[in-house]
Design brief:
It is built from ten helices and 21 strands. The chain is of the alpha+beta class. A hairpin with a 4-residue loop joins strand 7 and strand 8.
Length: 384
């Protein structure tokens, strides 16, 4: 398993991976990567620190897929661009005589340039570990737009074929299969309902096949696609009810509730209430959570932080707070609300995220305290 860390050096951000042993620098794959200029692969250089070898991958101005899809859904338009990126990347591998088995498919190691909509993949020379392809398949299943039933079926079929054929499917068939749905419009509700019944029937058939497989082979195959597929559909079905429950909870926050067994109520002293405890029950008033916000240095409030994760940057399609400043990155930083409080996290920004004057490393997260001064590029705010 690859363990990556994020560092900044000069004016670039890097994903750095430590090598277990000193590499043979003159071997072809290291030489060709150090040379650079391979499109759709992250620029890579081999460096040494205290006699330890590291591969530095330049990720400046890009976001990995885990960050891109924090709250978004995978659509067929995005998948079309991604599959095109895979095809172009494989052309480059063939052109430079590089092994396709050394691509790391884990979503945290695949990067997207949100402005140019290009993808860059991490190539690990002479790598013999897990490729992360199954992790990518599970990632697709978990984040696919379940409103697009046809796309859901396609993702499901990909998952099964990857298990059956392996990564060769990405070469030979996936693009042709995708063309069957690429130019289709989303289906009307009545068509979607009919297709949903078909998908349910398909799931039942797959369950029978899976039971037969398990009877023949008691070993754990590790195939999680079917389970994720069904769980994803269940999440969609319960989403509305969960939202209504959350809304009811919010409406009741901060109120004093009373359950009265009699039709009228007269003011009574504390003693009288205790004596007639069975008549009226008081629930202690809830503590209203304090709203946190970002302020200008002069004290003017800019925006209340109510939706999390709260993303900050200059690309309005991807952020909650737009910074109209050339020094800000398209997706610059985000504030999250987690157990233990609120946190600021840099999202691989070019000009940096600062907390009280100290710069965060790419993807570094620090806890926020009231009165903290935050700077995104050259734009300053105060958190409280």
């Amino acid at each position: 398993m690859l363990v990556a860390e994020y560092v900044r050096n000069y004016n670039c951000n890097y994903e750095r991976i430590a090598l277990e042993q000193k590499p043979e620098e003159k071997r072809y794959q290291y030489c060709i990567l150090n040379r650079g200029g391979i499109r759709y692969l992250l620029p890579c250089s081999l460096r040494y620190i205290d006699d330890n070898a590291y591969l530095y991958y330049d990720i400046s101005s890009m976001q990995n897929l885990l960050q891109v899809f924090g709250e978004k859904k995978i659509t067929r338009e995005w998948l079309k661009d991604f599959l095109w990126g895979i095809r172009q990347m494989r052309y480059e591998l063939d052109r430079f005589l590089l092994e396709d088995g050394n691509i790391i498919w884990n979503p945290e190691h695949i990067y997207q340039d949100l402005e140019r909509n290009d993808f860059s993949f991490l190539y690990m020379p002479y790598y013999e570990g897990e490729s992360g392809l199954e992790t990518l398949m599970d990632f697709w299943v978990e984040r696919v737009d379940y409103e697009d039933e046809e796309l859901v079926e396609f993702i499901y079929r990909i998952h099964e074929k990857i298990h059956q054929i392996g990564r060769e499917y990405l070469d030979k068939q996936i693009h042709e299969d995708f063309l069957q749905i690429a130019n289709h419009k989303k289906e009307e509700p009545e068509v979607k309902q009919e297709r949903s019944l078909q998908v349910t029937a398909m799931e039942q058939q797959v369950d029978l096949l899976q039971d037969e497989r398990e009877a023949l082979d008691s070993k754990d195959t590790g195939k999680k696609g079917i389970r994720f597929f069904r769980e994803g559909r269940k999440r969609k079905q319960t989403q509305k009810e969960e939202y209504r429950e959350a809304l009811r909870h919010r409406m009741n926050e901060g109120k004093v509730l009373a359950v009265c067994e009699e039709s009228h109520y007269h003011e009574q002293s504390t003693t009288e209430v205790e004596e007639e405890f069975g008549r009226t029950i008081f629930i202690e008033e809830a503590v209203v959570a304090k709203t946190v916000a970002l302020y200008k240095p002069d004290g003017e409030m800019v925006i209340a932080l109510e939706k999390f994760p709260f993303v900050i940057g200059k690309r309005k399609e991807n952020v909650e707070l737009v910074i109209n400043d050339y020094s800000a990155s398209r997706v610059h930083a985000r504030i999250t609300h987690e157990e233990g409080g609120y946190f600021i996290e840099d999202l691989n920004s070019t000009n940096g995220t600062f907390k009280n004057g100290l710069r965060l490393q790419p993807y570094e997260k620090r806890k926020l305290e009231s009165g903290d001064e935050l700077r995104f590029g050259k734009t300053e705010y105060v958190y409280r």
